[in-house]
């Protein structure tokens, strides 16, 4: 691995994970416990993940872009025994821990600079854990809970996707074989956040294949361009916007041919990505994944000029099963809601059997909530989310999450949030007793992750509605038109 000019061999990585495991065990962390990780992309993130796996400990991933109330809610629901973090995030802990502590016993401080206490909890330095002897005992099993991803949902109750060690490890090997991270000289740039399935599945494929992993704590196009050239990066994933920003820095200086690059299209820019990045030898293709099935579940053929630009493709696992169910008739068909069954599948939603049952079919397929078309019974094309989910800042967000927060604010009786500009920008509409849009947006900025903050908040006397056989429904399509018009006026 490479980070900040330093290098770490895989042998050193494995030894470090065994030392951290022993340090955690000596601190009382063991099978059945949970450890939360709130870090940006750096080697210690993966070292801690492997250390926890050796102990039979479940890792709770926390998005580094979450604000204090979101972290509080996640800690309350997952109840970890320890939390790994580093400055500047550590500075937020006194506010967070004032209202959310649960069973937390200590904080693991990375680059903590001698801090011994934060928010009333002791701080154990990463270096102290790393000074422990290597732990040879291994409590890992394929069935042991490994980690949770946080899906979109209301602020008070997002779904927590639980994966076993077997699903994570098996998928990592499948992705490595399908993308070539197990090939000689493979090098991948890890810039998509490790706290989410896209960043983690990609990095785990690098681990499984023994590739060079170059970690970046935050995306910067110039730094990414430099890393690609300096390290001979052969594998890259990201959003379409990220690819275009790298291409803008590259100019006409083509890269050495990439072996694999995949992008998720969060705006109407796929054609541009294919045109610009293809000319730089990046050979991008559409990829598909979810927290439940894991990212890089499927990839399109980069040689197919038509389908390469859309999500979906052929699953990386030869044991994966794909089918579609017609939305109107409920019977299996070539087009409809995509359903999946694969070794990469999640084991359920943490402490939420009702949601787990709702997401599964009677014969064990996951209902994706995505609309698509199946080809030849195995490969498929992703078209869109069936619901009204938004794609903001590279994350899939349920508008209800923002709506619930807005309805808690003074003067707001009802709120509707829709996606403008192709679903990539959130715009909120509120009703109530003279709600103040500027004050509401300030509240969002203070309490929500930046990518969830609406670009505009508009007050309406009444929402546009229509009568249907199932009752009066809000015309969200009309709201989207109004949102696009409002943003156009601000340009």
TrEMBL record:
GO molecular function: medium-chain fatty acid-CoA ligase activity
UniProt keyword Ligase, yes or no: yes
Domain AMP-dependent synthetase/ligase: 4-350
Record's keyword annotation contains Transmembrane: no
InterPro entries per record: AMP-bd_C, AMP-bd_C_sf, AMP-dep_synth/lig_dom, ANL_N_sf
SUPFAM superfamilies: Acetyl-CoA synthetase-like
UniProt superkingdom: Bacteria
Domain AMP-binding enzyme C-terminal residue range list: 401-468
UniProt xrefs under Pfam families: AMP-binding (PF00501), AMP-binding_C (PF13193)
One GO biological process term: fatty acid metabolic process
Keywords carried by this UniProt record: Ligase
Family recorded in the similarity comment: Belongs to the ATP-dependent AMP-binding enzyme family.
Name of this chain's protein: Fatty-acyl-CoA synthase
Organism: Humitalea rosea
């Amino acid at each position: 691995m490479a980070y900040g000019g330093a290098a770490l061999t895989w042998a050193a990585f494995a030894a470090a994970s065994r030392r951290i495991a022993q340090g955690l065990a000596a601190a009382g962390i063991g099978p059945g416990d949970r450890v939360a990780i709130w870090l940006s992309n750096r080697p210690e993130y993966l070292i801690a993940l492997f250390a926890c796996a050796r102990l039979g400990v479940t890792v709770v991933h926390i998005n580094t872009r979450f604000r204090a109330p979101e972290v509080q809610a996640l800690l309350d629901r997952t109840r970890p025994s320890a939390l790994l973090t580093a400055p500047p995030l550590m500075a937020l802990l006194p506010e967070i821990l004032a209202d959310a502590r649960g069973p937390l016993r200590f904080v693991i401080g990375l680059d903590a600079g001698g801090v011994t206490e934060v928010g009333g909890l002791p701080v154990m330095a990463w270096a102290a854990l790393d000074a422990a002897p290597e732990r040879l005992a291994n409590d890992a099993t394929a069935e042991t809970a490994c980690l949770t991803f946080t899906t979109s949902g209301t602020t008070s109750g997002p779904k927590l996707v639980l994966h076993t060690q077997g699903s994570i490890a098996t998928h990592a090997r499948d992705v490595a074989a399908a993308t070539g991270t197990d090939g000689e000289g493979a090098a991948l740039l890890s810039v998509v956040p490790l706290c989410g399935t896209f960043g983690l599945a990609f990095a785990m494929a690098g681990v499984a294949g023994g590739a060079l992993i170059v970690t970046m704590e935050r995306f910067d196009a110039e730094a990414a361009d430099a890393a690609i050239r300096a390290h001979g990066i052969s594998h890259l994933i990201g959003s379409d916007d990220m690819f275009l920003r790298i291409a803008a820095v590259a100019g006409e200086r083509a890269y050495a041919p990439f072996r694999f690059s995949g992008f998720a299209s969060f705006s109407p820019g796929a054609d541009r990505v294919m045109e610009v990045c293809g000319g730089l030898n990046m050979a991008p293709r559409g990829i598909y994944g979810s927290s439940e099935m894991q990212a890089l579940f499927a990839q399109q053929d980069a040689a197919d000029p038509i389908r390469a630009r859309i999500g979906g493709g052929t699953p990386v696992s030869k044991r994966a099963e794909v089918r579609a169910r017609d939305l109107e008739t409920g019977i299996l068909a070539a087009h409809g809601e995509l359903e999946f069954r694969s070794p990469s599948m999640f084991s359920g939603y943490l402490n939420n059997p009702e949601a787990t049952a709702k997401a599964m079919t009677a014969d064990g397929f996951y209902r994706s909530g995505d609309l698509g078309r199946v080809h030849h019974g195995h490969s498929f094309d992703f078209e869109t989310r069936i619901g009204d989910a938004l794609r903001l800042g590279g994350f899939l967000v349920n508008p209800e999450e923002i709506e619930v927060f807005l309805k808690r604010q003074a003067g707001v009786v009802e709120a509707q949030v829709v996606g403008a500009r192709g679903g990539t920008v959130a715009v909120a509409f509120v009703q109530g007793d003279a709600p103040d849009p500027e004050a509401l947006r300030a509240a969002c900025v203070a309490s929500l992750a930046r990518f969830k903050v609406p670009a505009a908040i508009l007050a309406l006397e009444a929402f546009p509605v229509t009568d249907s056989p199932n009752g009066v429904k809000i015309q969200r399509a009309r709201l989207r038109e109004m949102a696009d018009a409002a943003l156009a006026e601000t340009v």
